[in-house]
Amino acid sequence: MNFLGYFSQLLEIVLALLLAPLLIGWVNQWRAWLQNKSAPSLFLPYRKLHKLFNKELVLAQHASPLYRVTPYIVFGCMALASAIIPSLSTDLPLSPASDAIALVGLFALARVFISLAAMDVGTAFGTMGARREMLIGFLAEPALLMVLFSASLLSKSTSLTTIVDTLAHRDLAIYPSLAFAGVAFTMVSLAENARIPVDNPATHLELTMIHEALTLEYSGRHLALLEWAASLKLFAYSCAGLALFFPWGIADAQSPLALLLALPALIFKLALGGALLAILESVSAKMRIFRVPEFLATAFLLAVIGMLVNILLGI
Prior knowledge:
single chain, 315 residues, 11 helices
């Protein structure tokens, strides 16, 4: 692996850590504008993280070591997931680990630990949030796998870098299998990131909250790491969607000039995707929790249809 590959990998990790809170701020700004409200500062998520990192850490009385170590594990999983997704370049030292199944496994590992930690302190809200989180994960992970497998059928590989490199060099056309997979991926990403219509990140209503219930007992740097991890998860899903369905602009191996142009291309695509996410949330209504299985079952069905279209028609 050459120096450019290591530089690309380091640049992806640094950009993920820096741009993930900015993406949250961008989406929040667009939501406020669309609702004819005064928009918060674009850098408000950074200020929130700075405030939490400087606050005193308060632990629950009966918290176990699992409760203490979970924020670091969740943050590490999200950072690694962002690192193995080829958002800037396909020339990455972590390419052998950037498998579709490994990516889903990282999301599942983080979900298991945060759910166990939420139940560890024995509060009603934490247990309720953990049950809802595991329900969503149980339904969303198979749908996400089917989406990734639909893309892998076109490249004959489950390696993310191979998939992206193959799709980027195909003729510009609408592939029905990817169209079905794209709709399914959008539905899964909304559920996985606790966005409307599955959850509302702007409220703490106990009857509806999912992500907020998991982090209700955390404070200080632990809460900062979990909030940062949540923004990294949205960033990772955004980069995965852009890499799979809009791979143009991602640099090839041994191409310094392409890497230089990949950065503004990624920022432009993320800005456009964040605005579209805010628009989608503004025109959608929060669904009841018992309708979420139907929502994710539809995503799974669309992803399977995409696979069948590819197998039967080859497109």
